[in-house]
Structure formats: structure tokens, C-alpha cells
Amino acid sequence: MKKVAVLMLVFGLCHSFPETETNDKVCVCAGSNSCCNICSLTSVTQKMGELGEKAANLAEKVTFLETRLQNAEKEILELRSLTGGTPQVAFSAALRESGSGNTGPFTTAIPLQYKKVFSNTGNSYNPSTGIFTAMVSGMYFFRFSMFNNLAPTPSSVVSLMKNNERLTSVWDTSGTDSNDMGSNAVVIALTVGDNVYVQLEPNRVVYDDVMNYNTFSGFLLFPV
Q1: What is the residue-wise DSSP string for 21-39?
Q2: CB distance 199 to 159 below 8 Å
Q3: Which of 203, 129, 200, 134 has its CA nearest to residue 169?
Q4: Nearest C-alpha neighbor of 172 from the set 155, 184, 149, 193
Q5: DSSP conformational letter for 114
Q6: CA nearest 99: which of 224, 209, 220?
Q7: For 45, how many CA atoms within 13 A lie in the half-sphere containing its CB?
Q8: CA 62, CA 78: separation in Å to the nearest integer?
Q9: What is the pLDDT along the chain (224 residues), one digit of tens a residue?
């Protein structure tokens, strides 16, 4: 309080004397520069006070941002502890979203489009194309099932493909009954960009309905 009173007194003394202006403003106080020096000191003190307030505000903001950063880092560590730091990739889908009937025959081999998606963690499976595209290099597990056509003579052949390579197949082209089904599975290494899909062979058909006999599933075992 004493410092404030002194500053107020000095400030009042400075303004009690008239100023004469030349090219620059010059303070004239009883034939001495001491009063003007005190006035300048007061002005500097005021500006330093303003700068001090701004610095304090900036310090508060920095502290706030540091706290948010620490919280974010903590959340990331918690998520990593839950997932083990391992990318999560898994999907499962069935052939038809609704209705029943045959898919095929076609004159050329085509990827089957499994439209009814049960899960698609990592969004690596595309139901519009039926193709799984690896976004993480690693070892993967894939499984698929097939239900043959409801016809006197079965004519169903599907193959699991990696890019253009046939990995394994399920087929039924003969028999006395008309509604067999089968499945197959593989564990394979994929690199980023590899495609995996189930291919319906030329002039073959598969049947499905709301029971979802035909499925295509896969997941990442571990990255490499």
C-alpha cells in the first residue's frame, strides 16, 4: 500500500506541472528533470504491470494445455494396455442381407460379395466388392463356408483366393441329396495391400437364405 501511495503522489506531482512541446514532448518540472524521470519510471512500471498480467494469463493457459496433454497421454497408455499395442483387425459377413435364392452362374469367376456384415473392426473388408484388403502386415486366419444350390444335381464350387492365387476350395458337384454344405480355413501371411476373397468359379452357383449358410470371416492373429 505504501508503494501505491508513493506512486500516486509522484504521478500527481508530474501532472501538476505544465508540459512544453517541441518536436518531442519534454517534461519541465521546476527547472529539473527529476520529476520527468519519475514520470517515465511510473509509465514503465505500469507497462511492466500490464505485461506481468499477460504473462500470468499465458502461464495459466500453458498449464491448462499441459494438463490436457498429460490426460491425453494417460488415455493413450490405457488404450495400449487394453489392446497390448496390437492393431485390431477382424470381420465376419454372410452372403445375403435378405431373401433367398441362388447366386450365379456367371461365365467368369467372380468374388462373392458378402453383404450382411456382422462385424468389421479395422474396416479392412469391403462388402461392396467382397474383398478383404490387408492394412497391417501379419499372420491372418480366414474361414469360409458354402451351401450348394437346391437342384437335382449340385453345382457349387468356391475358392479362397489371395490376390490371384487359389489357396483352398470347397465344392459339391455330385450326390443324391441337393443341400450339402462345407467349409475350409487357412492361416496365411499377408503384407499391406494383399487382397483375400472367396471366388465363385465359372458356371457354378451357391444358395442362401435367411439362415446365412454362406459366410466369410477373418482376423489378424499377430502383426509381423
Answers
A1: ESSSEEE-BTTBSHHHHHH
A2: yes
A3: 200
A4: 155
A5: -
A6: 209
A7: 13
A8: 24
A9: 544 444 444 444 444 444 444 444 444 455 556 666 676 777 788 888 888 888 888 888 888 898 888 788 766 655 555 556 779 999 999 999 999 999 999 999 999 999 999 999 999 999 999 999 999 999 999 999 999 877 667 788 999 999 999 999 998 887 666 678 899 999 999 999 999 999 999 999 999 999 999 999 999 999 99
Task: Tell me which residue has cell 441337393.
Answer: 178
Residue indicated by cell numbers 490436457? 68
The x, y and z cell numbers of residue 142, run together, are 480366414
Q: What single DSSP character describes residue 201?
A: P
d(Cα 143, Cα 221) in Å, to the nearest integer? Answer: 13
| Maximal C-alpha separation, the chain | 126
Write the single-letter amino acid at 156: S
Phi, psi of 3 (to 5 degrees): -65, -40
Task: Give the number of residues written for the chain.
Answer: 224
- Tell the residue number behind the cell numbers 494445455, with chain if given: 65
Stated as kind and residue range, the H or E segment containing 144 is strand 138-147
